[in-house]
Amino acid sequence: QVQLVESGGGLVQPGGSLRLSCAASGSIFSIKDMGWYRQAPGKQRELVARITSGSNTDYSDSVKGRFTISRDNAKNTVYLQMNRLQPEDTAVYYCKANIMTYYYDDYWGQGTQVTVSS
To answer: Could you give the CA distance from residue 74 to residue 62 in angstroms, rounded to a whole number?
Structure first.
């Protein structure tokens, strides 16, 4: 059994910052890629940022220079530091991890709401 639990969402004013965390737990042998996705009302889920086990990172164009993804392999945790938040960043944010138990498979968190509004 593997669980991904996100935290850190909330309401913030435009220009503000939030830090999301996602901790994986359970029968984990190793974790490859970890990432953050988001889904706004009426839109498809999209990639925000991802990070490999070697800490190589990739960002969507809309968040480059504002968001930073990082991970703590000892804690099986991935973070998303979000700065200069804008109303269009409002969405439910999901973490995803490629985790090996007996074999590699993708696991998703339950989602955390981020609302950017004045």
So the answer is: 30
